Amino acid sequence: YRTSAVLANGQIQSYPLHGRNDFLPNLKQIESRIAGQAKLMYVGFPNDPTGVVADHSFFRELIDFARRHNIIVCHDATQHFLTYDRVEAPSLLQTPGAMNVGIELFSLSVLPGGMFRDLGVAVGNPSALAAISQLTSHLHAPLLPGLLAAAAAEFPRLDRHVEAMVSRCGSQRDLMVSGLRDLGWHLPAPGGGPYVWLPVPPRYSSVRFSILLRKAGVFVVPGAYLGEYGEGYVRIAFNGDESQIREALDRIDRQMSRFRLRKRAFPAVSLA
């Protein structure tokens, strides 16, 4: 998000996602001066990296906020289909008034074969979509008609593809979360997405803890690399197969035992 804003000579204002607010933006804490100057606001659910799934109530509040301040909301819904425990991620555009102030970005990577991972769909406000179309016509080569036809042919089987993906990733999530709990974390399972937002042990920064795990051959992303409000966490993916996840958990276990961090009560994180 930052890169595109910088290339457009935009000014960036971050907003925090705190555990005490269930990792949702607290719109009431955004200064009216900043909201009045803003032209575009990015949100994304299921959220990367927290795994939080926003509900209809939050989207109603968000659309009301955008309408009052004349802001276009861009909802990154690339993980829209990847939710667990029979939770369905709502679309921003289901919210009354959203078409006037919002656009949504979806990914077709859920389709099988790997050839569709670079295809996406943008829907929403017509003026915003016209601007996107004009920009992409200058920056990207036209998509091959055969590729588009192949993607369209898979749409009738979309539910089947989504069910298979959710089943596979759900099992991987459960294995990763249960293993981390065994190592001492008080950790709820993420509601969506392919990541766990993991609190670091006491007296460790996110970068220092990432280096500790890297020495064991486990690569995670320090929360500090994902924004100024990400310190205190690391993002760990669970998109490997079962044997890889078990091996990663074993390596984390051995490394933490070596540094006498095993079986401590690590900070709790809320993903409600």
Task: Determine and state the CATH class of the largest domain.
Answer: Alpha Beta
- Architecture per CATH nomenclature, i.e. the level-2 architecture of the largest domain: 3-Layer(aba) Sandwich
How widely separated are the two ends? Answer: 25 Å
Question: Helix/strand/pairing class, anyone?
Answer: alpha/beta
Helix content: 25-40%
Poorly predicted runs of 5 or more residues: none
- The number of strands is 7
User: Largest beta sheet, briefly?
Assistant: 4 strands, mixed
Order of helices and strands: HHEHEHEEHHHEHEEH
| Biggest sheet, spatial arrangement of strands | 1-2-3-4
Mean pLDDT: 91
| Overall morphology | globular
Q: Give the count of helical stretches.
A: 9
The fold-level CATH name of the largest domain is Aspartate Aminotransferase, domain 2
Number of self-contained structural domains: 2
- The Rg value, from CA coordinates, equals 20 Å
Strand content: 5-15%
CATH superfamily of the largest domain: Type I PLP-dependent aspartate aminotransferase-like (Major domain)
Walk me through this protein's architecture.
- This protein has 272 residues and is α/β, with parallel strands linked by helices.
- The protein folds into two domains: 2-156, Aspartate Aminotransferase, domain 2, CATH 3.40.640.10; 159-258, Aspartate Aminotransferase, domain 1 (Alpha-Beta Complex), CATH 3.90.1150.
- Helices cover 39% and strands 12% of the residues.
- The chain has nine helices and seven strands; from the N terminus they run H-H-E-H-E-H-E-E-H-H-H-E-H-E-E-H.
- Strands 1-2-3-4 form a four-stranded mixed β-sheet, with helices on both faces. It has a three-stranded antiparallel β-sheet with strand order 5-7-6, with helices on one face.
- The longest helix has 25 residues, at 158-182.
- The radius of gyration is 20 Å and the shape is globular.
